[in-house]
Amino acid sequence: MAKKWVYYFGKSKSEGGSQMKEILGGKGANLAEMIKIGIPVPPGYTISTEVCKYYFDHGEKYPEEIKAQVEEAMELLEKDTGKKFGDKNDPLLVSVRSGAAISMPGMMDTILNLGLNDKTVEAMAEKSGNPRFAYDSYRRFMQMFGDVALGLPHAKFEKALDTVKEEKGVKLDTELDTEDLKRVIELYKKVYQEEGKAFPQDPHEQLWDSINAVFGSWMNPRAIKYRQLNGIGEGTLLGTAVNVVAMAYGNMGDDSGTGVAFTRNPSTGEKKYYGEYLKNAQGEDVVAGIRTPKDLEDMKNDWPGVYDELIKVFEKLEKHYKDMQDVEFTVEKGKLYLLQTRNAKRTAAASVRVAVDMVEEGMIDKKTAVTRVTPEQVERMLHPFFIPEEKAKAEVLTKALPASPGAATGKAVFHSKTAEEWVERGEKVILVRLETSPEDIGGMAAAEGVLTARGGMTSHAAVVARGMGEPAVCGAESLDVSEEKKQFKVSGKVVKEGDWISIDGTTGELMLGNIKTVKPDGLEGPVAKILEWASEFQRLGVRTNADTPKDAQIAKQFGATGIGLCRTEHMFFEADRIPIVRRMIVSRKLEDRQKALNELEPIQQEDFYGILKAMDGLTVTIRFIDPPLHEFVPKEKEAQARLAKELNIELDELAEIVNELHEFNPMLGHRGVRLSITYPEIAVMQTRAVIKAAIDLKKEGLNPIPEIMIPLVGMESELKTLRELVTTEADKLIKEAGVDVEYHVGTMIEVPRGALTADEIAKHADFFSFGTNDLTQMTFGFSRDDAGKFIKEYLDRGILEFDPFKKLDRDGVGQLVKMAVEKGRKTNPNIHLGICGEHGGDPYSIEFCHMVGLDYVSCSPYRVPVARLAAAQAAINNG
Fold first, then answer.
1. Is 570 part of the annotated catalytic residue set?
2. 383, 460, 832, 839: which one is catalytic?
3. How many angstroms separate the Cα of 401 from the Cα of each of 459, 509, 542?
4. In this predicted structure, what is the pLDDT of residue 860?
5. Is there a catalytic annotation at residue 58?
């Protein structure tokens, strides 16, 4: 039996459904599903994603059976519609649309009104009794087909249309009559001729050219860029499906129209129907932003019966899919048709609110709600907002549609390529466009925010920005944007490329200048509820990397259960102590070094007191000095001269010391545990500072729990030596104080040898913390500071799937972690295991930490909520 490549949906039969998204794509699967649950959908058929894969795997050729299966499906479509494809009396017209398993709005191609030619347009005009509608459909088809299927310049078609509108003295295409539209068609034919192409009069040729174009769009630059930006690997999906659907006409007059709607507000998540529509229009008119659409509420007056039916459809769809839906619809002479439904793209705030509301409505359970919100969405909710006092001083240039919430400030740029280039060199930009198109995806991703002069709340800019979590202000009609001159005029002012502007996507305001932003301090409302539910499922603890009481307090508010990494050397760089540190470093004699350390001890003690107090009752892991000493002294002669004067030593003597500290490969040099072995007095000072701070807090009735972490250990004897030194000093101080202080001693596993010999090292460790930044560096042999020179090339060429400094390399570095976990627990079953590298805040890496049995992850304060949700999802997804 021949393999099935084409699936039909309609009155005759309905094949497939929502469970077949991988094969039918999201659009095709949901069209078939809607027919099954009794929602009005035009009939059609889907050419599967498997055909797309075959097409590209076989040099853009199709399976042998495909033409026969398409013909069979077309016959069923003719039967269900009562029309004939290419018929000169009552022609069947179709739309040809893309649709992958994962929604990629606007990234691939669509063609409407296919089947029209010089003969069928006459038949359609006569049959409908509406010649204007027929010729309007024909000119639309000619433009879309030329643009999408043949690659003719879109601008040339627009220019031809504008020429006729100018001749007529009108602004809108709806003001053109039948004769005007015939003139547009003649000009369009000239565009074809000028480009050396002939417009095909054979509908079957049109169909296959369009199918080729839709499959081809799977590999167009904007679709590839979208997949890269959204982490959709090239092997993740088979490709796009092609949906061939009988046309429903929204351009037949004022009793017809087209619209886009959401079953809840996609910006806020409020349970309120939200959408826009245009009378006498087809689908692309709404998202193109050329005409200003009407609010869905207006439909109550325009088409009350259609509105009531649409609301019932919304209710049925939400109940069926158990999620907020984004629908496209057409009204043809008062009859409603659904052209698409999908789980709606929404802002981070909306995603969280919808998940919480649906639990409270009894539609989904807590576990489902926790998996509905992505860690990235939680992170977006912690993005900056404008300082109210600063914003109050700003000059508001105009107010438009608040298309995607959040605050953004940057330099105005007018082209996507410019945005990408400027961001590459370290600039912050706002992308300003008349209107965005799918080609702008790269610039939108690079920019801090998006500002458009045209378009509504469901325009391309609005939908894509909301999906990215990027602030956007759209439909700023008072803006006179000149992309050619790279400037816009508004309120009597001219803003040029490079000028600072700020946008508030929550209020729709455009302001002049660079307005300061701040990050939120805590979590409240629905996101707090989601994280509360997440804690019911997560097994991994989430700590924070913090060096100050302020950071510790912020992390605690975000739900951190301790500090997994407190870097003591960061404290050394503060103005009141760096001179003492430098004096300690340049001291030739132990007694001089000890004097400096005696001065540092009370300062360090105060530091540790503040952090331990902020995290009362929670574990605080304090890493002893890690970087090489040369980092604390200046390299430049001028700075060295100033330092020599401060330290009251000769410049030559200081230069000699600095030269002695120089290392060819400092990351593998005299640092970490090696420093503490060479200069044990440093480790003694730090131990005293930690334990004395804990003693003081204990006496105050608090419960400090310090962990002392020795970095860069690769040998059992290293940790054994340092543990003895630390515990001897700590136990002596505790005994003298007469209080009971709980403390632990452990190490960072960041040297591959440390992982390989973890069973030996674990005998002397209360805990391991995997320092995956250095472990990645040493496992790959990549310098963190220099890898940027070639990592991009590795990623672009597919040598690396992702940057291993951002996501944990499970196959290499991960295997060392797994081995160390197993070996460590073998000799020390009670050992506590965590991770404190940058990977501790990355969801992919957190899942791996859960899988190999770590006890906690540690990350920066503002990633704590992200890690909490990722930990819960790791537990849910991995049993």
1. no
2. 460
3. 11, 8, 39
4. 86
5. no
